[in-house]
Amino acid sequence: LVNFEDLSDKRLEDKFLMKYFRLDKAKNVSYNLDNKKIRWLKFIKAKSYEERKEVAKGDDTLMELNNWIEKYINDEHTKEIYGKWAEEIAKENGYEQGSNQKSIDIAKQMLKDTIAIPTIAKYTGLSIKQIKALR
Q1: pTM of the entire predicted model
Q2: Among the listed residues 19, 22, 76, 23, the one whose alpha carbon sits nearest the alpha carbon of residue 46
Q3: CA 69 to CA 114: how far, in whole Å?
Q4: Most exposed: 50, 59, 107, 117, by fewest CB within 10 Å?
Q5: 42-70 pLDDT per residue, tens
Q6: CB neighbours of 35 closer than 8 A, spacing ≥ 6?
Q7: Which residues pair with 6 in a beta bridge?
Q8: Count of other CB atoms within 10 angstroms of residue 132
Q9: Is 24 a residue whose pLDDT tops 90?
């Protein structure tokens, strides 16, 4: 910890220990569930309730956490928030751009077939100005 106003002023420097674990490398580790750190890594990496439950056996904290995770991910409010987040991610990753590109491709074909611009706009969702720019 450091003083925000003076970064050279370090506080409690001897009280903290930070360890980094690379989860991408954890898959290559042979797991020994007697090792608490390895158990936690395996728990974090688990892909299902049942897999987490198996890793958590015998560890009250992990068992409680597993139940909380399951309750949380099945909560209707959480599902709604996740759905909105997933839509945003899809947009950021080009889903919207791909959809728009498909409309442009269709509009180009319709223009080749001499279909009226207002009709193209109606069926593609593109503006008349966008369609005219495609000609």
Answers
A1: 0.42
A2: 23
A3: 57
A4: 50
A5: 888 888 899 999 999 999 999 999 999 98
A6: none
A7: 3
A8: 13
A9: no
